[in-house]
Amino acid sequence: MAIERLFRRRRTRGEGREVPELWIRCENCGAQLYKKDLEQNLGVCPHCGYHHRIPVEDWVKILADEGSFEATTGKIRPVDPLGFVDTEPYPERLARYQQKTGRPDAIYGGRAKIGGVPSVLLVMDYAFAGGSMGSVVGEEIARGAELAAEEDRALVIVTASGGARMQEGALSLMQMAKTTMALEFVFQKRLPYVSILTDPTTGGVTASFATLADVIFAEPGALIGFAGPRVIKQTIRQDLPEGFQRSEFLLKHGMLDAVVDRRKLKPELVRVLSLLYPGEVDAA
Amino acid sequence: MPLEFERPLIELEEKIRALEATAREQNLDLSEEIGLLKAKLARLEREIFEGLTPWQRVQLARAPGRPTTLDVAERLFEEFFELRGDRAFADDPAIVGGLARFEGRRVVFVGHQKGRNTKENIARNFGMPHPEGYRKAMRLMDLADREGLPFLAFIDTPGAYPGISAEERGQAWVIARSIQRMSRLKVPAVAVILGEGGSGGALAIGVGNRVLIMENAWYSVISPESCAAILWRDAKEAEKAAAALKLTAKDLLELGVVDRVVPEPGGGAHRNPEGAVRALREALVEVLGELEGLDAEALWWDRYRKFRALGAFAET
Questions:
Q1: Domain limits at B177?
Q2: Is A136 within 8 Å of B203 when comparing Cβ atoms?
Q3: Which residue, among A180, A93, A170, A79, has the nearest Cα to A128 in the 3D structure?
Q4: Count of structural domains, chain B
Q5: Within a domain: residue B81?
Q6: Are the C-beta atoms of residues A156 and A63 closer than 8 Å to each other?
Q7: B36 located within any domain
Q8: So what's the ipTM on this one?
Q9: Nearest chain A CA: its distance from B173 CA (Å)
């Protein structure tokens, strides 16, 4: 058994990967980090402050009050409305992501309390097809907004997405209108909507519900924009300025309310929600 | 420059014209031959256009001579007055709009504007708006609401401009706002995809109670070239991407993304803009008629139900 394990480890090393169990390398500064330390630090590198992507469940742990979360997503799954085949058929691609993440599509969320404020918390999953928005993601956002309005909850969405999903064609594009219109019920009831933009948030997600929040937070260094940097570079045929489309750049240009370190995010979010939420707030 | 698949038609047309000239010059009766050729032309045109691939339709949607928003405005409206500027930063020539009279009723219109030649296209940024373009569109939506006038939007853009200045000024933010603003219109709103419906930059003025599309226009989440570059890692695979995206008028009608396809005259709108606008007029009169009795709330719910229902998924 012990020898078998040794062999397995050797092999993973041979493929050029790091030993997965204990150590991890910071994606930004390259520092060797004890994985547990990084987890305890909410995925933020203690050396350089780089914000690593973290699993959607961790987002719920970070933002929801302990024991308050009850998942509502996951009851619908994607189909293949166009019969889309590129280098592989869309259903096969989907199956791969579903196996990898254990969820039907690129979103996870449900009812939660955040600093005592009754909320609907939705988190986009970049690990699933780059967090792309197809019919399921759009529907879950719309249902989340409608649930918030129905039960007098705040709406909090953590975004991470390359944009609308190509494999569902114009139906993906229509999710931009659908999600935008579903927010109307939240606004009509004067309930707060806060978005937290993480790396990366681009395309159809940025150009719809993500930027229509009452208050927009972003994580440090997150890439946020309409077009991706590669497309812009191709269009204008010149190098992009340092820090272009990063949170700090967007804050300066008036597009965000605050760039907040993940380790300080929850208290900031709670302050905003409690200032905006019209109903009664349970003492946390 | 004719499109590749149009060549046989153009050659035949030239033959007919030559024959007609000969008949005139030499005072000959060639009417029988000419009649036969004309019948052949009509048959060939039908054959070619019925069998068009999605990629060929994309080429038609971009064909030089295809009526732009201003071309349509000149033919469709009894009169119109262009309004300019976003009242904040600049006037974006890639989006036009203004006041107009359509079949006796006053309306407000907006639309992407491509150039009619290279020089104009450069000035119009090939119909790719900056944020100020969408702010102009929103200003016109405000005006339509205030005056209680129906709102018409003409879509013809490869997409919103992907550039540094556009990003600095919040391209994504303004597109989101424009979608929201249009969805809130208190007046009947009709969107027409004239040529290219490229992604969010198109949808920003596409939240109509009714969405119409010209027969040879396309509308999708991404252009075939960009889709090919990402999924096939080669923009030259655009033909495959065009087929995969289901972006043609017929496909979109089946998906429920558009409500109605406006037929184009034989040979396409670029070869007969008058005919194309005539068909568009008929369709617009009808759909405006359907909407004109509805109040603000009914119109909002009509739009909400339409877009809320779009998407395909399964309950688990």
A1: 57-308
A2: no
A3: A93
A4: 2
A5: yes
A6: yes
A7: yes
A8: 0.96
A9: 6
DSSP 8-state assignment for residue A108: E
pLDDT digits (tens, 9 = 90+) for A168-189: 999 999 999 999 999 999 999 9
Q: What residues does CATH 3.90.226.10 cover in chain A?
A: 54-276
The verdict on B76 and B36 lying in the same domain is: no
pLDDT per residue as tens digits for the range B213-227: 999 999 999 999 999
Chain B residues with CB-CB distance to A216 below 8 A:
none
> How far is residue A176's CA from residue A209's CA, in Å, rounded to a whole number?
7
- Which stretches of chain B drop beneath a pLDDT of 70? none
Indicate whether B143 and B273 sit together in one domain. yes
- Kindly identify which residue of chain B lies nearest to residue A226, measuring between CA atoms: B172
**CA nearest neighbour of B192 among B120, B107, B125, B266:** B107
Going by C-beta distance under 8 Å and a sequence separation of 6 or more, which residues neighbour residue A57?
A: A108
What CATH number does residue B250 fall under?
3.90.226.10
B177 in a structural domain: yes
Cβ(A281)–Cβ(A116) below 8 Å: yes
Closest Cα in chain B, distance from residue A241 (Å): 9
Which of B167, B205, B247 has the highest number of chain A CBs within 10 A, making it the mutation to test binding with A? B167
Tell whether B313 is covered by a domain: no
Please tell me the distance from the alpha carbon of residue B46 to that of residue B56, in angstroms, as a whole number: 15
Indicate whether B156 and B243 sit together in one domain.
yes
Q: How far is B169 from chain A (nearest CA, A)?
A: 7
B218 and B196 in a single domain? The answer is yes
Distance CA A23, CA A86 (A): 37
Contacts of B253 in chain A (CB under 8 A): none
Q: Which fold has domain A54-276?
A: 2-enoyl-CoA Hydratase; Chain A, domain 1 (3.90.226)
- The span from the CA of B110 to the CA of B81, in Å, is 11
Structure tokens of A28? 């930004």
B19-54 burial: b if 16+ Cβ within 10 Å, else e = beeeeeeeeeeeeeebeebeeebeeebeebbeebeb
Together in a domain, B107 and B23? no
Residues with Cβ within 8 Å of B64's Cβ and at least 6 positions away in sequence, in order, are B1, B116, B117, B270
